Amino acid sequence: MKLDQAKVQFLEHLKKRKRSPVTQEGYERDLAMFHRFVCIRANMEVELEDVREEDLQAYLTHLEDHRHYKPASLNRHITVLRSFFQFCLREELVPKDPSVRMLTFSIPSKERAYPGPADAEKLIQAIHHPIVRPLVELLYLTGLRISEARDLKVEDLDMERRRLYVRCGKGGKARTIPMSAELHSMLQSYLPRREAPVSPYLFSTKRAGRVAASFVNEKMHQAAADLGWKQHYSAHSLRHAFATRLLHQGEANLVHVQKLLGHTNVQTTSIYLHADMETLEDVLNKGWGGDAS
């Protein structure tokens, strides 16, 4: 069987497993890159069973040395290749899995920058695009992933019961998020003035359709620059800001935040625990009963 034919079968398998559209697109894109690489390397269309461990290692070297991929991006490609060849082995398309000895790269641990409540409000107010601004505000008030916000349809909003339905989150999982009074008010104001009222999607333009994630990040960077900030924030940083605000307010625990963020494992949610210097000083002062100064 040709490598390309096996790729088609694997992508069909992902679709049947109801993996999210974002996941399917990412796997298809990464496997297409790998397919092009091995075909150029062999100077011919490659049979699936002819792919060897050294081909995979050469591909990773190419990504690292020539495309300058960082460890996180390399690990994503490793995950895709492992999933693909494990599928091929289960389906008896190959006699053995050439990816079995692939090791992931270690990623230096670092605190992700995220805006505090005051800065988040300033950032939102500094965005003047009529679609991006309410989208960014929704991200901050719900903790949604940018892909989930882009996939929201008007029918996913229950304004009467104040519920927001994520139909297909990461891993194809659905969840329901209660609307805060602030979010409900913002949506009531936004819905009558949507730019593309005929589109089923909540955030879309007449010409381009759904707003691109890169465009949202671009507008956020522009707003930060307009505010004179050196620190720029991405759409994903608002997910951290949402989780951190809930945890710092003391009204929510990790399990509550886990449900809202759509995490399967609470350990994943713990990544969103951030301790700033002010919080650390308060903890020390309360613990030792003294003044940090």
TrEMBL record:
Alphabetized Pfam families for the sequence:
Phage_int_SAM_1 (PF02899), Phage_integrase (PF00589)
InterPro entries listed in its UniProt record? CB, DNA_brk_join_enz, Integrase-like_cat_sf, Integrase_catalytic, Integrase_recombinase_N, Integrase_SAM-like_N, Tyrosine_recombinase_XerCD
The molecular function GO annotations come to: DNA binding
- Can you supply a Gene Ontology BP term from the record? DNA recombination
Could you tell me the keywords of this UniProt record? DNA integration, DNA recombination, DNA-binding
Q: Which residues form the Tyr recombinase domain?
A: 110-285
Residue stretches making up the Core-binding (CB) domain? 1-89
User: The organism sits in which domain of life?
Assistant: Bacteria
The family this protein is said to belong to: Belongs to the 'phage' integrase family.
Q: Please identify the protein, giving its name as recorded.
A: Recombinase
